[in-house]
């Protein structure tokens, strides 16, 4: 007598956890934060990025708010890249 196949059991296979953490969304997000920190362009936001990364790794999930925060930090760095440095006026005003 043969057992039932997976299809016969009717289990929701989409809800099964990934076998390898590297395949999960939260792990890839934490790796993206590591990559940002490794560039050296985000030292001013290192505490925030590290805190988000630690929370994601601890809870094994990522929220929309965390994604927005990291996106805002990335956008701020990109915006700084195109901003010209103020050199002052070439002549004196009275």
Describe the protein in words:
55% of the residues lie in helices and 0% in strands. With 94 residues, the protein is mostly helical. It has a domain at 20-81. The N and C termini lie far apart (100 Å).
Termini, distance in Å? Answer: 100 Å
Please provide the ordered H/E string of secondary-structure elements. HHHH
In DSSP terms, counting alpha (H) and pi (I) runs of 4 or more, how many helices?
A: 4
Residue runs with pLDDT of under 50 for 5 or more positions: none
For the residues shown, what is the average pLDDT? 83
What does the radius of gyration come to?
Answer: 23 Å
Largest sheet: none
Q: By helix and strand content, what is the structural category?
A: mainly alpha
Shape: elongated
User: How many DSSP E strands?
Assistant: 0
Strand content: under 5%
**What does the oligomeric state look like here?**
single chain
Helix content, binned percent: 55-70%
Features:
94 residues, mainly alpha, 55% helix, 0% strand
Question: In short, what is this structure?
Answer:
With 94 residues, this protein is mainly alpha-helical. The protein has 4 helices and no strands.
SSE layout and pairings?
Blueprint: H1 6-9, H2 25-39, H3 46-59, H4 64-82
Helix pairs in contact: 2-3
């Amino acid at each position: 007598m043969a057992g039932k196949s997976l299809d016969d059991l009717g289990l929701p296979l989409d809800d099964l956890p990934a076998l390898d953490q590297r395949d999960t969304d939260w792990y890839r997000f934490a790796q993206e934060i590591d990559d940002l920190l490794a560039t050296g362009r985000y030292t001013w936001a290192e505490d925030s990025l590290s805190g988000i990364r630690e929370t994601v790794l601890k809870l094994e999930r990522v929220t929309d708010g965390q994604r927005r925060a990291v996106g805002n930090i990335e956008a701020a760095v990109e915006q700084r890249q195109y901003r010209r440095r103020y050199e002052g006026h070439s002549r004196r005003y009275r």
